[in-house]
Write a structure and sequence with these properties.
Helix content is about 80%, strand content about 0%. It has about 160 residues and is mostly helical. Helix 1 (about 5-40) packs parallel to helix 3. The radius of gyration is 30 Å and the shape is rod-shaped.
Length: about 160
């Protein structure tokens, strides 16, 4: 199917708009990831709020996937036109390249922050596990003490060697 010039320009504009939306969504994800970093760094880690940020990011990532899929479909329609007539679409191609560069830079920043957050979150969770383990041991110790003191746990201490 041969596209007319208006359709080609429309498709190219859709590509530009899609990349702008992708940049905005990535920026939102970066802000949420920064919020996650702040939550991890707080003295009292708020698990519920952290889980909320994960849900928000999941929705945005799904939106990104849809945008990427749509971008690929539209690009298929105009790829040859852009290659063959790059001089006609020079400004549009420049805009596309600039947006791709910005998206790439933002993605790299986001990946670096995600990696730091993962390491810090693992440390926080490890600390929490240790605290839970200590609390469980402490609770067991207290429970055993009270059982012993109330006579609920038999004690071998009253058996003596009665050899005279």
């Amino acid at each position: 199917m041969e596209l007319n010039n208006n359709a080609k320009k429309t498709y190219i504009q859709i590509l530009i708009d899609t990349l702008e939306k992708k940049f905005n969504i990535l920026d939102e994800i970066l802000q949420i990831t920064t919020r996650q970093q702040n939550l991890i760094d707080e003295k009292n880690f708020d698990e519920d709020e952290f889980m909320n940020t994960i849900s928000l990011k999941e929705k945005l990532i799904n939106n990104l996937s849809e945008l990427d899929h749509g971008f690929e479909l539209v690009y298929e329609h105009v790829r040859e036109e852009l290659k063959e007539n790059s001089d006609i679409y020079k400004s549009e191609i420049t805009s596309l390249k600039e947006l791709v560069r910005k998206i790439t830079d933002l993605s790299i920043s986001l990946q670096a922050l995600e990696k730091r957050n993962k390491t810090n979150l693992e440390a926080v969770l490890s600390k929490k596990r240790k605290e839970i383990g200590k609390a469980r041991l402490s609770n067991e110790t207290v429970a055993n003490y009270y059982k012993t003191m109330t006579g609920l746990q038999s004690s071998n201490a009253y058996f003596y060697d009665k050899k005279n």
